[in-house]
PEP-utilising enzyme mobile domain-containing protein
Amino acid sequence: MAEVLAEGYNVFDTAKSPSGTIKYLEKPADVIGLIKSGKLKDHILLVRGGTTTFLAPALSMGAIGVITMSGSPESHLGILTREFQTPCVMTASLTTSESRYVVGETGDEHFVEIAKALDGRKVRLECTDHEVGRVVADD
């Protein structure tokens, strides 16, 4: 059985199980750079939160999957991923860490830990469970 690296909220149930290398997109310039590279569909996109509106161009151009480190399925990004039918795991937490996102309490170290652990990993998203989305090692 494949190793589950992270779990979070599943935005919508889907049989799609995209596989790709996680790419952490910290700022709008990162999104533009990835789009210009022509390798958008090779990556599962990792962003900090559900209000990351700068990800919209990537969704409209065929992003295959999204992981957020905060936010809820009702957030702006959650709505957009449903509209574009892009599998999305929100408020993902590492299965090897006790750190969990808490609104208004979580420090930057939480986000740094997740980005460091996941960026560059080859993974598959599992979004068939009604509530829990999983980020599974695929290397």
